[in-house]
Write a structure and sequence with these properties.
Rossmann fold; alpha/beta; 3 domains; 47% helix; 9-stranded mixed sheet; single chain; elongated; 14% strand; 7-stranded mixed sheet
């Protein structure tokens, strides 16, 4: 019986969709004519309390033919048939009201000019009210029937909408006009709304979510709460992440008001909603390091470098020099900035930070006043496998930048550093700590340039970050790989990182190391579980063997730590920004630092891995490598298993030594 009904519904749906606009008008216009004739008869019958008063219709029968024809002409002239039935709203009702008033006036004029007609004066009023009600009612019923057919036969996914306010109602209207989702109910925190009907859907308390998902077979929930506080938004996302629901959200209120986003532009809830702190807001007064200045960004095509470029362009810099080694990355960021239509001068320059002559040429040509040094190799396992190139780029490249900044009289130079530079266990962290020492030494010998460093944790969405990897693995059906069940990390968004760097540069006094208050550390295992659930999938483990995505532990990678730190000496001072701190790090003796850098540069140039390793252990406080490639390491035989308990990986550079 059900299948027969579904087939009939499907045929009716196909027939309706198959009609052209002209065919629909040809069906609707004669039906409206019948409603005009019926309304005229009913108005006379109501007024004279007789179903067929003979003395009226003996001389006025022709009105039942002429008035409907006149009505179709009026309705067509006012554009009533241009209104789509399923989107009938106040504009359509207004057109119907105009048509019925005009048609009532025509009926009144017939009675006034033709003395043979008996039309009581109240009849046109009753006629107009009846006709208006019938025309509006028929169109609303037709629209409801159309939506019912589409919902029954269109395969639309049932969804819950969190938020029964104005945005929620607009979202329902947008989804009703689309063909993907079918809103079945609202969830809202406001007690006064619970149990009421909004846009034809009942409003429920959030505690009813499990019952509603089971009743309607819901696997998606849409957030329509653009104006709530960040804290409350995080609470809602955390509540929903405990269930296997695919969570999407509409743009924020700022995006809606500015026109950047529309109410029907749904997107997945970002993992940044689960940060253990409030997002850091920018302070416009702390952008003096770039406003009206000639600025250069090294590594301009990278994750941090490209966001720095975007914000520097918005902050009103006079000139922006994009210095990048990757041709494609440089092309991408230059094109993006050019399309912004900003008046800022943009110069795209290919080059390596290890080429000191090239750097100096560019800085002098464009009269650079501020340098943001974001060029670095940052992927820990790759730098572990290629330690000499990592040190050359991260440390020696930073020395080239510092030398050029000093010689050219650059006002400010800012190094983008990392929490992995604190008591590092990997070459990448050690090379970045050496880069910090390079800037600190440059500040000791130079009083014309302000050198500073900015140190922060993992950046969400950057290349090499765990979050894009998890997203890719979830999209592929798993498994999701986590190195260790106890690994924890601090996280921040890319815009936050760029804002921190620019604002810290404005507060720098010389030799400063700035840190961000990054809140609570996030367990990577919990992060993986939440990302799986927010994607609408179930975790597959011993308790749920029929789940969708499994988490696999792969063991710590070479050079990886269970946790990261931001302070070397454990002390930090407040700054003008409540979320930015200034680290108090000990400064290495300048002459010793220069001599050590000379030794390190010589060892790298000679590709002497053993000496380079010894120098790093001597120069970097707290450096305790959990792996270093032996210079004469024996390459593993093809197919031979590795030994994860010692985490030894033969580096490509060791192989070539």
């Amino acid at each position: 019986m059900t299948s027969l009904l579904d087939r009939k519904i499907g045929r009716a749906n196909a027939w309706l969709h198959g009609l052209t606009r002209l065919q629909k008008k040809l069906v609707l216009a004669p039906f409206d004519a019948l409603l005009v004739a019926f309304s005229l008869w009913a108005a006379v019958a109501i007024r004279l309390e007789s179903p067929w008063p003979y003395f009226v219709w003996i001389g006025g029968w022709w009105l039942l033919l002429v008035l409907p024809l006149v009505g179709m002409g009026i309705f067509y002239s006012i554009g009533l048939y241009r209104v789509v039935m399923r989107s009938m709203g106040r504009h359509g009702a207004w057109r119907i009201l105009r048509g019925t008033v005009l048609l009532s006036g025509v009926l009144t004029s017939f009675g006034y000019f033709d003395n043979t007609l008996f039309i009581p004066r109240s009849t046109p009023i009753i006629f107009g009210l009846l006709l208006f009600s019938l025309l509006v009612g028929v169109r609303m019923l037709g629209g409801s029937y159309y939506r019912w057919l589409r919902e029954r036969g269109g395969g639309r996914r049932p969804v819950l909408i969190y938020g029964a306010g104005e945005s929620g109602m607009q979202l329902v209207a947008a989804l009703d006009a689309a063909r993907e989702f079918r809103p079945v109910a609202f969830l809202d925190d406001e007690p006064s709304l619970i149990g009421s009907l909004v846009a034809g859907r009942k409003v429920h308390a959030p505690s009813d979510i499990d019952r509603l998902t089971e009743r309607f077979g819901v696997s998606d929930i849409l957030l329509a709460v653009p104006s709530i506080t960040r804290t409350r938004r995080k609470e809602i996302v955390a509540f929903l992440s405990q269930r296997s629901l695919r969570v999407q959200t509409i743009p924020s209120m700022v995006e809606l008001v500015s026109g950047i986003g529309t109410i029907d532009q749904l997107r997945k809830v970002g993992v940044e909603e689960l940060l253990g702190r409030e997002a850091v807001d920018a302070d416009a007064d702390l952008f003096t390091s770039v406003h009206g200045r000639s600025v250069m960004v090294t590594g301009a095509g990278g994750s941090i470098g490209s966001e720095l470029c975007r914000q520097i362009a918005v902050a009103g810099a006079q000139r922006l020099v994009l210095f990048e080694m990757s041709e494609f990355s440089l092309y991408s960021i230059e094109r993006e900035l050019t399309e912004l239509g900003s008046e800022i001068e943009i110069h795209a320059v290919l080059g390596s930070v290890c080429d000191e002559r090239r750097l100096e040429q560019v800085v002098r040509r464009h009269q650079v006043e501020t340098i943001f040094h974001a060029a670095a190799y940052k992927h820990v396992p790759l730098v572990e496998a290629n330690p000499l190139e990592g040190i050359r780029n991260n440390t020696i490249g930073t020395e080239c930048v510092a030398n050029v900044a000093e010689r050219c009289g650059v006002t400010r130079a800012i190094l983008v550093s990392t929490d992995k530079a604190v008591r590092p266990t990997n070459v990448m962290g050690a090379s970045k700590r050496m880069a910090e020492k390079v800037f600190q030494r440059a500040q000791q010998r130079c009083d014309t340039t302000i050198f500073s460093m900015v140190r922060f944790g993992n950046v969400m969405g950057s290349s090499g970050s765990v979050i894009p990897l998890f997203k890719k693995q979830i999209a592929a059906g798993g498994p999701v790989t986590v190195t260790h069940p106890e690994v924890i990390r601090y996280f921040m968004t890319i815009p936050e990182a760029a804002q921190l760097v620019i604002q810290a540069a404005s507060m720098a006094e010389g030799g400063d190391v700035f840190l961000l208050d990054m809140g609570d550390a996030v367990p990577i295992l919990d992060l993986a579980k939440r990302m799986i659930r927010l994607s609408g999938l179930d975790l597959k483990d011993e308790e749920s063997p029929l789940g969708d995505i499994e988490i696999v532990f792969t063991g710590l990678r070479p050079g990886e730590k269970l946790f990261e730190e931001l302070l070397v000496d454990g002390d930090a001072l407040p700054t003008a920004h409540p979320k930015i701190m200034r680290s108090v790090d000990s400064i290495t003796d300048g002459y010793r630092a220069e001599a050590a850098l000379d030794e390190l540069r010589t060892a790298v140039d000679k590709r002497d891995l053993e000496t380079t390793s010894q120098l790093l252990e001597r120069l970097v406080e707290g450096y305790s490598p959990n792996w270093w490639p032996a210079q004469n390491a024996e390459l593993p035989r093809s197919g031979a298993p590795t030994q994860p308990e010692t985490r030894q990986v033969i580096s490509s550079e060791a192989a070539h030594s």
